[in-house]
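REVIEWER CHECKLIST
Item 1: Sequence provided? yes
Item 2: Single chain? yes
Item 3: Sequence as submitted:
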Amino acid sequence: MLLSGWIDATPEISSLSHRHFAVVLSLLLHQINPPPASRRVGFSKLAFRSAFQMAARRFSQRRILLAVPVLTFLSVAVALLVLKPDLPPLSLDHILHPPPPPAWEVPDVDPIIHGVHASDYEKTEHPYSLTPFPDSPLDRSPPKDKNAPWLAAVICTPWDVERRMLIRSSWMRIYKELPFDGRFVLSNPGPQWMETIKLENSTFGDLIVLDALREDDFTANTVKTLGFYHWLLEKSPKQYQFVSKMDTDLWLNARGFWDRFLSPRLTNDTSHPIATVNNTIIGQLYYSPPHKVVFPHGSMYTVTWDMVELLAGLQDTHHVIAGEDMAMAMLMLKGRETATVVNMKGSEKFDFDERDTRPGEDTAWAVGDTIPSAAEHALYGDEVIAVHQLKSDEAWLKVADCFDENGIKEMPEWTPPPPPPPPPPMNEEETRKWQQEADKKKMKYNKSRFDAIPAEYWEFKDGTWLCNGIWKTQVGVEKNPEIQA
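Item 4: Structure as written out by the authors:
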């Protein structure tokens, strides 16, 4: 009777079937009067199995379903705590009142050049004396337009003679009626090249030689652009409104760039136009995953004159040694400065990829199903301004053939060719090699450089988007769907 009352008062036991109760009772009796040793093993297995079945049935399907998301949430929370211990606590107040944007830190970099850190490379002795470049006046008439507001400067080495001739005879000649001065920027070539460079400059009058910088990979990859800005402030015969810096493997549609980006930002005074914007960069923002910093992509960007002054002054103060274009972001972060960026779209500025051209045609035009917003593709549409990665003369001439003095030509229609016949029967090794060759020719599109910038690098501040705490731009959500105001 006493046992029966205890069972009725205990819901967990009263809910068990008679069989389960018998098992529990047997366990109790087993503890009081254990069976002989010969029977204990079998009895223990039966008791364990029955107890396990009983425990499993106590968890209903509903409880299991509720436990799964709870355990998942806890696992994610623990993982975040381990991987990112500096994350703020999750709370309602944190959601309603988000913390201020991060204080962006300057990346700690020391570029390696030919196996030597830049900080050590800088200390090495010069292999030759830095003799100032001799005066080499033009043998012909002076430059065309003394009041040209735009300087288009190509960064190159002294021995890039053939590429300089190719540039002079292509886009610099085609667009010679535009108000720009085309120049080539060299570092000090040393005595063995000095006479050659002097003769070239007396013929064309378009070389800028940075006397204080030796010509080597260290200079080219770190401080050459900043050295060029210093030269402009100290030696330029005039102050330009816009200064473009570009690589030797970049084709420039100067007509399109002038009409779309520069002319609208100048006053209408044709005799002496003045920039209507300040602290402005025209280019393409680029995110560097290894260094976790955003800066204008170095194949080409254009700055206003006050940016030339600002960056040269910041370099005098902070003396940054880094990848030449990343150095701009580092200087801006160190000086807590901001600048306005006019971002060029992927259809306007991109890397040329031969795989995207039309099969069977010797042309730089893209196939019909290209993705013109991607970072790499062939020429498509009427927005093309700057085409990069033209390493070979053949690629350069293909691209040049798509332009005239009015800008980019009308894109011809394209009819896709019939699909190629299937390959002949092959063994496994031949099939593998055939597939490898086919994959090499297949175009793979990457998202635009702008869209590749992580969403957390953006903040909406004072009616504009601010990227990496430096770059102000009016375009945000519509260019990067991940960003929300």
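Item 5: Key structural point noted by reviewer: The first strand starts at residue 112 and ends at 113.
Item 6: Recommendation: ____
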